[in-house]
Amino acid sequence: VLLGAGNVATHLFRAFSETEKVEVVQVYNRSKTTLKPFETLVETTTSIEDLVEAEVYLIAVKDDAVEEIVDQVKNKNALIVHTSGSVPLFSSAKRNGVFYPLQTFSKNAEVNFKEIPICLETSAEEDFVILKNLAESISEKVFSISSEQRKKLHLAAVFACNFTNHLYTIAETICQENQVPFEVLSALIKVTAQKATLYSPKEVQTGPALRNDQKTIQQHLEQITDADETKIYKLLTQSIIDYHGKKL
Ligand SMILES: NC(=O)c1ccc[n+]([C@@H]2O[C@H](COP(=O)([O-])OP(=O)(O)OC[C@H]3O[C@@H](n4cnc5c(N)ncnc54)[C@H](OP(=O)(O)O)[C@@H]3O)[C@@H](O)[C@H]2O)c1
Q: Do the beta carbons of residue 182 and residue 188 sit within 8 Å?
């Protein structure tokens, strides 16, 4: 049973639908509107009392609501699992685990689940086997990751993905304000990400901060009008200079 109907639940449902090894018997979500796309595909419910029996209850709701949902299903004689990178393993459920797919999911952006690392953790060893089978039915990259490691991984992922994406947003705004198609930056964005994975990111750092090109840095700062963007530019510039051992 899948609990939640957001980005992660949607992609998990699609992935499980493509394998014969796993059957999603029901999808629960608190609101009917978000459940709508599932209605023709699987049994759905908005009532947690109406959950059907299953071997695994996979909770993919927002982080702050996970504990509340776990509390409502904790007495089931089944494996209770959540998909969060930052929520701990809940010992309140008799059998519990974590099924954290490390990727950025948006409902309408396609993903290839086979390539997505799934980080698993369970309290009991025998439950790990169940979760591993479940994960391997949709992904070729399954890892055993402890809560402590997952917390650090999530932190790393925020730097690698969420912050980087916010910087893309700033870049897009600068392009839009100057009538330059954002597409012109596409190749740069792709190669930057590719190089960071093929090499160590510190080895492929480029730009005025690395070279300590002060005139260029000052010229950039003069062009920024937003106070937050000025702070971000200065902080990242200084961080690159400090990391690579040069003085401003
Ligand atoms: N998105 C990602 O890239 C990603 C990647 C890996 C892991 N995760 C983890 O996966 C989980 C789900 O993330 P998501 O991106 O799929 O979230 P999402 O798209 O924002 O969907 C949130 C889901 O949580 C439900 N929800 C919100 N508040 C609730 C409450 N108080 N009680 C019950 N249900 C509630 C929503 O129901 P309504 O439709 O009724 O609001 C919806 O089904 C989170 O733990 C997240 O950390 C996310």
A: no
248/245 Cα distance (integer angstroms): 10
Q: What are phi and psi of 46, to 5 degrees?
A: -105, 5
| Residue identifier of the C-alpha nearest atom 39 of ligand 1 | 34
Question: Which residue has 């419910």 as its token pair?
Answer: 45
pLDDT by residue, tens only, the chain of 248 residues: 999 999 999 999 999 999 999 999 999 999 999 999 999 999 999 999 999 999 999 999 999 999 999 999 999 999 999 999 999 998 888 899 999 999 999 999 999 999 999 999 999 999 999 999 999 999 999 999 999 999 999 999 999 999 999 999 999 999 999 999 999 999 999 999 999 999 999 999 999 999 999 999 999 999 999 999 999 999 999 999 999 985 44
**Ligand 1, closest atom to CA 34?**
39
Backbone torsions φ then ψ of 19, nearest 5 degrees: -115, 145
Give, in order, the Cα–Cα distances in Å from 136 to each of 2, 24, 42, 182, 205: 17, 15, 22, 38, 35
163 secondary structure, DSSP code: I
Beta strand pairing call for 56-59 and 2-3: parallel
Q: Is 101 in the pocket of ligand 1 (CB under 6 A)?
A: yes
Q: Is 153 touching ligand 1 by the criterion CB < 6 Å?
A: no
Q: How far apart are CA 213 and CA 195, in angstroms?
A: 23
pTM metric for this prediction: 0.89
For residue 6 and ligand 1, the question of a CB distance below 6 A is answered with: yes
Helix, strand, coil percentages in the chain from 3-state DSSP, rounded to 5 = 50, 10, 35
